[in-house]
Specification:
Strand order of the largest sheet: 1-2-3
Distance between the termini: 31 Å
Oligomer: single chain
Helix content: 25-40%
Number of helices: 4
Low-confidence stretches: none
Strand content: 5-15%
Mean pLDDT: 82
Radius of gyration: 15 Å
Shape: globular
Largest sheet: 3 strands, antiparallel
Order of helices and strands: EEHHEHH
Number of strands: 3
Length: 78
């Protein structure tokens, strides 16, 4: 379902969409340049499309929640 021209993974029509109210883009949120960029690049986010992002895997790019998913042993080896 990857659309390489747009850099988007198209949602499965059978499911995977966010419930209303979970991540709605309000006028206030759209004032954030990053949110505005996301909305412009991924207009189908409301139906579950996902914008693909690439970043180096470094300690600085990991949030504490990532370590809960990948485990502390991985955190030490990075």
């Amino acid at each position: 379902r990857f659309d390489p021209d747009q850099g988007i993974v198209r949602a499965d029509p059978a499911g995977g969409q966010l419930r209303s109210g979970v991540a709605d883009l309000t006028t206030e949120r759209l004032e954030n340049k990053h949110v505005e960029f996301f909305d412009q690049r991924n207009p189908g986010h409301r139906r579950g499309d996902e914008l693909c992002c690439i970043a180096p895997i470094t300690r600085e790019n990991f949030k504490p929640g990532a370590y809960r998913v990948i485990g502390e042993q991985t955190a030490v080896r990075l």
